[in-house]
């Protein structure tokens, strides 16, 4: 009988101790370990300068093909511009370029307007264009709208005459990034330049060199 009573008392004391520990104040419990949070990474954008150079080819025929003796529709194109490489999908740019588009020589027969002779001709164009580009994997499409200054010059009997037009111009291009490191880039690009107001349409096949001038860091 005494053994049974003693065993019951011991069981009751053990239960009270366990219950007291189970319902202890949360302050007495160890605090859970905090998870480490990574600091937000800053976004980086840059002001980029780029230069373009390559051959050009113009479409169309000379004004008076029956008098044309020589005609070249190939020339060269050069361009300098700036682009803002943003953290978003597109990069705005502004560029100024010049193309020597065509040259030739025609033989004008004598007539009611005077003696005949040889006429040298040259066609060139300044292209001033803002626009946007974007990096899609290694491809870089280009779209630009601006104005062109199309200059046509004639040389006849030692005198030179020049005329110009200022039509709107559209640029459509597609480049391929051949080299890219942290600061410098090298592209190969094909571009179509359309100035329908002057009936001028030409293509260029360019080497494009790009480099960052300044960096802008925002958190």
Note the main attributes of this structure.
mainly beta; eight-stranded antiparallel β-barrel; 1 helix; 10 strands
Walkthrough of the structure:
With 219 residues, the protein is mostly beta strands. Helices cover 10% and strands 63% of the residues. It has one helix and ten strands. An eight-stranded antiparallel barrel has the order 1-3-4-5-6-8-9-10. β8 and β9 form a beta hairpin. The N and C termini lie far apart (79 Å).
Tell me the strand order in the biggest sheet: 1-3-4-5-6-8-9-10
| Tally of alpha and pi helices | 1
Oligomer: single chain
Sketch the major β-sheet: 8 strands, antiparallel, barrel
Distance linking N and C termini: 79 Å
Q: Percent of residues in helical segments?
A: under 10%
Q: Give the low-confidence spans.
A: 1-13, 15-20
Q: Kindly name the structural category.
A: mainly beta
Mean pLDDT: 84
Number of strands: 10
Q: What's the shape?
A: elongated
Write the layout of secondary structure elements.
Blueprint: H1 2-22, E1 43-58, E2 68-72, E3 74-85, E4 91-108, E5 117-133, E6 139-156, E7 159-165, E8 168-180, E9 184-195, E10 200-218
Antiparallel strand pairs: 1-3, 1-10, 2-4, 3-4, 4-5, 5-6, 6-7, 6-8, 8-9, 9-10
In short:
This protein is mainly beta. It contains one helix and ten strands.
């Amino acid at each position: 009988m005494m053994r049974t009573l003693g065993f019951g008392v011991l069981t009751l004391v053990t239960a009270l101790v366990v219950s007291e520990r189970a319902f202890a104040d949360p302050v007495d419990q160890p605090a859970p370990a905090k998870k480490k949070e990574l600091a937000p990474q800053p976004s980086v954008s840059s002001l980029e300068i780029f230069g373009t150079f390559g051959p050009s080819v113009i479409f169309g025929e000379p004004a008076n093909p029956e008098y044309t003796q020589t005609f070249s529709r190939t020339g060269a194109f050069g361009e300098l511009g700036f682009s803002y490489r943003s953290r978003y999908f597109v990069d705005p740019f502004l560029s100024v370029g010049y193309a020597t588009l065509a040259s030739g020589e025609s033989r004008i027969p004598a007539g009611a307007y005077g003696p005949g002779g040889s006429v040298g001709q040259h066609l060139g164009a300044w292209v001033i264009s803002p626009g946007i580009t974007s990096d899609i994997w290694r491809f870089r499409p280009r779209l630009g709208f601006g104005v062109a200054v199309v200059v046509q010059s004639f040389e006849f009997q030692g005198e030179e005459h020049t005329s110009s037009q200022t039509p709107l111009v559209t640029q459509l291009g597609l480049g391929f990034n051949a080299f890219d490191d942290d600061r410098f880039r090298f592209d190969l690009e094909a571009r179509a330049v359309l100035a329908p107001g002057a009936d001028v349409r030409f293509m260029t096949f360019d080497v494009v060199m790009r480099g960052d001038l300044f960096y802008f860091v925002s958190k």
